[in-house]
Design brief:
mainly beta, globular
Length: 513
């Protein structure tokens, strides 16, 4: 090789290192104060950036909101505090926070807003965040912007604001893992927003696409610990969530919202809830909310959970069937009530209005566009049933530990007449506490080796293959097909299989103080 060629190669190599260094940035916030953290956030310019927030174990109060607008071109941004959460936080294990970087959120409303960028990754880790005063927020922490690689991990969230929603993810995908959640009141710890949104902001777009069970097209919540009685999450606005391998401490429950529960918003779209432990009370009959989930919308997979101290596992509630929870405004200024043909948004195949818009066991349909009073079915240009697909809820392999209290129920339809129908809109494991019936392929969900499926089956019944970890569904009479296999665990963002961006070069960092 000639001397000139060697020189050119060396020049190109050094140029590449310099370019990598220019793209890598480490920013050290001067303190935990809102002004210093905001200054650090405003300094982000590189493609790969780490913002370090120092130790402040006595707690630093924020009275002004902080906003992180991740710049275009940033592919990987990490906000790193000094708090640790030791342990697995998983069922059968435990975890303990050690509070070193403590932010006391005294902001009236949202304390921390993170606007991510499509194609980039964002990670928040090592922070103790204590919302403690001010106006309840629909997200004391709000993260939005379209990133599919968002990770919140090893944080401690201690929310004492009544009516608060601690974290509000809006149109992002990713994973929340190994976090420790406290609440001393009924604050919602998660307020799940859509991972697919449209220009109207009301989640209509997410009700037009496939369910995508078993894929990455959800917000994942895994290996977290929840305690002190708050609602663990509230699935709303077309939300999609996979909630798995978490521990729900005493009195912690789940909430969902359906269409008709406020303004023009749509209901929870799809959930997978599996391999969690939930514990409620030693005497649930003294509590009016002694069911694990108030279930109002969409489709789901519920499996492998251990539920203790609840009088009911799943309580279905079509809120538009009566005035018990919400008052409905008649069309075209609202959704109207479901039943007796009161609203053309519903299928109205019988007197109960069946199928109600976004009800339990319904999936993708036609796009709705516009706003009240001009909201219409885009296909017809009128107020009309959007022809939503039947996508049943399946619940199997769950352990419902009953004590001396009564009654005990696996599933309860709250409204009468019920809008959701068993073995049509939802399929339950057989036998269960309400149905001492052996599975024979004609209804419900059975389980065992994949090879042990009955040779005959009725369409839509399910069989969980304990050896293949796959749910098989009877597609047509006597024909089983593979229907659902859970997504990779741990999530790739946790295991490092998908970091969401290039790794920062070692020993090539720019420090900004």
């Amino acid at each position: 090789m000639t001397r000139i060629a060697k020189y050119l190669l060396l020049t190109l190599f050094l140029s590449g290192l310099y370019s990598a260094a220019a793209r890598a940035q480490t920013i050290n916030a001067a303190s935990c104060s809102s002004s210093d953290v905001q200054t650090a956030f405003n300094s982000v310019t590189a493609a790969t950036t780490t913002v370090n927030i120092p130790s402040c174990p006595s707690g630093t109060a924020w009275t002004t909101p902080v906003t992180l607008n991740i710049p275009a071109g940033n592919t990987s941004l990490t906000v790193q505090g000094q708090t640790t959460v030791a342990g697995t936080c998983a069922p059968g294990g435990a975890c303990t926070p050690s509070d070193s970087t403590v932010i006391v959120d005294n902001v009236s409303g949202t304390g921390l807003t993170v606007n991510t960028v499509t194609g980039g990754s964002f990670r928040l880790t090592g922070i103790t965040f204590n919302p403690s005063s001010g106006t309840p927020a629909y997200g004391a922490i709000d993260v939005s912007g379209g990133s599919t690689s968002v990770r919140f991990d090893h944080n401690h969230f201690n929310d004492t604001v009544n009516g608060d929603h601690t974290i509000q993810p809006d149109a992002v995908n990713g994973v929340f893992d190994h976090n420790f959640f406290d609440s001393t009141n009924q604050a919602n710890l998660f307020f799940i927003q859509p991972t697919i949104n449209g220009p109207d902001g009301e989640s209509n777009a997410t009700w037009t696409v496939p369910d995508n069970f078993g894929t990455s097209q959800f917000l994942f919540v895994e290996n977290n610990f929840f305690q002190n009685g708050a609602f663990i999450f509230d699935c709303d606005f077309g939300g999609r969530i996979v909630f798995r391998y978490n521990t729900g401490g005493t009195n912690s429950r789940i909430q969902t919202h359906g269409v008709g529960s406020g303004a023009q918003r749509r209901g929870c779209r799809a959930m997978e809830v599996y391999q969690n432990t939930f514990t409620f009370s030693s005497n649930p009959n003294t509590n009016s909310f002694a069911f694990l989930v108030d279930y109002e919308s969409g489709t789901a997979m519920w499996w492998g959970n251990t539920i203790t101290g609840f009088s009911t596992f799943l309580r279905e509630d079509e809120v538009r069937s009566n005035t018990d929870t919400y008052t409905q405004t008649a069309t075209p200024n609202g959704w109207g009530y479901c039943g007796n043909g009161a609203s053309n948004w519903d299928q109205n195949s019988n007197s109960s209005g069946y199928a109600c818009l976004d009800q339990i066991g319904r999936g993708a349909g036609n796009l709705l566009t516009g706003s009240f009073p001009n909201l219409v079915n885009q296909l017809t240009g009128t107020i009309s049933w959007p022809n939503q697909a039947v996508v049943p809820v399946y619940a199997w392999d769950n352990t419902l530990n009953t004590n001396s209290y009564a009654p005990n129920h696996y599933w309860v339809n709250y409204e009468s007449p019920a809008t959701a129908t068993e073995n049509k809109d939802y399929y339950l494991q057989l036998p269960n506490v309400d149905e001492n019936v052996t599975f024979n392929g004609t209804k419900g969900v059975g389980q065992g080796l994949a090879s042990a499926k009955p040779s005959t089956c009725t369409p839509a019944v399910g069989w969980w293959g304990t050896d293949t970890q796959t749910l098989y569904v009877c597609q047509t009479t006597n024909t089983w097909v593979s229907y659902y296999t859970p997504y990779t665990y741990p999530h790739p963002l946790v295991s490092g299989l998908n970091s969401g961006g290039p790794a920062a070069p070692t020993n090539l960092a720019v420090a900004v103080q």
